[in-house]
Amino acid sequence: MTATPSEPYTPSAPRAQSVRRQLHRYRDVLTLVTLPLLAALVLPAAFAGGGTRRWFGGRAESQRAEAQAAKDAAAAAFYELDTAQRDLRISIETIIAVDDSPAARRAVSDFEALGRRIDEASGKYIEAVDAHDLDRDELEASVATRARAELTAAKDQLGRVKQDLDRFGQGLAPLLGKAETQLVRLAPAVERARQALLAASNALDNVRKTGLRADDLAGRLAALGPELTKLNQGAGQHGVAETLERAERVSREAGAVRAEAERLPERAAEIDHRLVSLRTRAQALTTRAGQVEPVLSELRRRFSAACWQDLQHVPEQATENVRQAELKLKEAQAARDAQRWPDATSLLSTVRALLNGTDEAVSAAGDRLRRLNAVSKDPQQEIDRTRFAIRDAQRLAMAGRNTPDPRHARPLDDSVARLERAIAALEGRHPDYWHFLTETEAVRATAARVVSQIREERGGPV
Asked: Is the dihedral of CA 226, 229, 235, 237 positive or negative?
């Protein structure tokens, strides 16, 4: 599809009409002079004396023939140039319809400049033709000679412009190829957009048959209506590049609406399942939260305050979190009933986050008691585990070296001292076993970082 703007490169109307008249006149002349029949008809008449002038004999008649030949050659050059200009104008209009790049605008400007040169050369040719009547009786030899010279000069000028026009046309090949490629893409792209809109509309109809409204999807599809109107108006009104971009955008957005519509029944079922699952989980957490207080009582009875003070808030916080989760579940159910799917999904995510936090807090109390029981009975196991981690890191730091790198040795030395202090803190009537466990965990983490750093520097597996 090509846009057809007004012809900005056409010569002025009177001149153009004169050029066209001359073109048709000399096209007929070129046809006639190539027919052998012309000679068969003319020669006998000339020898018989039936004509109004002599065709042979004398210098004037020879010059007349040469001038006529020059006139015919100039007419052929004019016709070739006019045809080439017409063909090239189609190429320029194709580029204009698709491409608005600086290179395309420069090509239009260059074509306009060539058009002015074509007007000038055509004008010289027409002036030369109009100035000399080669069919006049008793044509002077000097007049015929001058006519031949002027017509030959006009032909040569037309030929030079034609050569420049041909070179210009060859240089348009990349721009023209790009434009034609886009034009080839245009009709399929528009058709794909129409089919995508139809498929989205059908998908919405199928969803509504199941009792789901899909109002938000219907609104998104309705918003594409004006875009379809512009696609139907065509590239002639909106341009090829803009129409291509619009067709691709409509296809993409309509495809998204269709995909969501097709998934909507599954999404509704998934939300229903999550509502049931989260209600069950909230009820289970309510039961588990009630078991935290006995765990805290045992921690208070058997261990120092530092071992359990940070867990004091767990029962109250768990109860509050479960209450909040149940309220959000009711809101999510209302959103699902109203088929506000994004709201329902968001609320369910909030409920899940609340229950996850509660689960971790409730589990932390029981895990704390278990770990404190273990270390209070046998702290040596934790000590040995931590010392092994330090020694393993030290062996790796010394591998292939006489002295360790200070960047590795310093944190390991500090870890040894830190472990010794944690062990020493266990002495006493009420040791802080939780502090001991957090210290040994920190020491092992430091040793692991050193090992990872050494292996990374040496290019080994981390």
From this structure: negative
**CA pair distance 220, 17, nearest whole angstrom:** 55
Please, are residues 235 and 97 in contact by the beta-carbon 8 Å criterion?
Answer: yes
Cβ neighbours, 10 Å, residue 400:
6
CA atoms within 13 A on the CB side of 141: 7
pTM beyond 0.70: no
Rounded Cα distance, 329 and 62, in Å: 110
DSSP string, 178-212: HHHHHHHHHHHHHHHHHHHHHHHHHHHHHHHHTT-
- Residue 231's contacts (CB-CB under 8 Å, 6 or more residues apart) are 190, 193, 194, 243, 246, 247, 250
Query: For 290-378, where are the alpha helices, taking DSSP H only?
Result: 292-302, 314-337, 341-377
* Other beta carbons less than 10 A from residue 142's beta carbon: 11
And the tokens for 15?
Answer: 């001149």
Q: Is the pLDDT of residue 214 over 80?
A: yes
Question: Could you tell me which residues come within 8 angstroms of residue 212 by beta carbon, excluding any fewer than 6 positions away?
Answer: 264, 265, 268, 339
Tokens at 335, concatenated = 């959103």
**What CA–CA distance (Å, rounded) separates 232 from 399?**
76
> 32 to each of 36, 136, 138, 315, how far by Cα in Å?
9, 19, 24, 112
The predicted-structure confidence for 159-193, as pLDDT tens digits, reads as follows 999 999 899 888 888 888 877 777 777 778 889 99
Can you say whether the dihedral through the CA atoms of 220, 222, 223, 224 is positive or negative? positive
Report the distance separating Cα 358 and Cα 317, nearest Å.
Answer: 8
Three-state SS at 461: coil
- For residue 427, how far is the Cα from the chain centroid? 69
Contact between 214 and 338 under an 8 Å Cβ cutoff? The reply is no
Q: What are the backbone dihedrals phi and psi of residue 415, each rounded to the nearest 5 degrees, phi first? A: -65, -40
pLDDT in tens, 59-86: 667 888 888 888 899 899 999 999 999 9
Of 149, 121, 287, 263, the C-alpha closest to 200 is 263
**Angle (deg, nearest 10), helices 406-424 and 379-398:** 170
